[in-house]
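Board work, copied verbatim: PilZ domain-containing protein
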Amino acid sequence: MPALCWNQRRRDFYAITTDVSTEGIRFRSSSRLSPGEDLTCSIRHIGLLEARIDRAVGEEFTVSVRGGRSALTDLARQFVALSRAQDLRPEVVRVHHRIVPKQKIVQVTLDGGLGVSGHVLNISASGVALLVEQSLEIGATIQVGRKLARVMRHFTHGVGAAFLEPFEPSAVHEAMTL
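↓ predict structure ↓
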C-alpha cells in the first residue's frame, strides 16, 4: 500500500508497504532514513499512524508502531481485510494449446446414461470447453465422445471439463474427433 510519511525535520516522502509482521511495518522508499527517527505515516486505506524507525538498510526501513502490539495487531487486521477485499485469484495457466476442431458436435453422456448433444468450443490435450443445454454439476464425471472428463467450471450455456486421461499433445488437431 502506498504511504506518505513525514516528520518535523524531513519533507514529505513516499513509501510502499512491503510487509506487516510482529516486528513492525516494512517500507521501501527512495528516501534514505536513519534508525531512531520518529515518523508520521498516512497509509492509503489504513489511515495515520505514529511510528519510529527501527532499522534502515538501503531503500528499506522497518518501523515500530506507537501504541504497541495491540495497535500493530489492529493494523495487521486492516491489511488482511484489504487484501481479502481485493479477491485476487491467480490466473489459470494454460499448459496445453487449444484448437477448434472441424467436428464440433459431440455426444455427451451423463452419469445416469442420459445422452445429450454438445458443441465443442475448443479442445486441448487436457480438456474441452462445451456448450450444453443440460445443467451439469461441477465435479460430475461425463463422457465426451469416447473420452471421460470431469466438469471443472461453468460459463454461460456451457462447461469446461478436464479429461481424466489427457490426450497426447500431438493427437490434438483440427481433424480430430472425440
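The chain has two domains: 2-86, 105-171.
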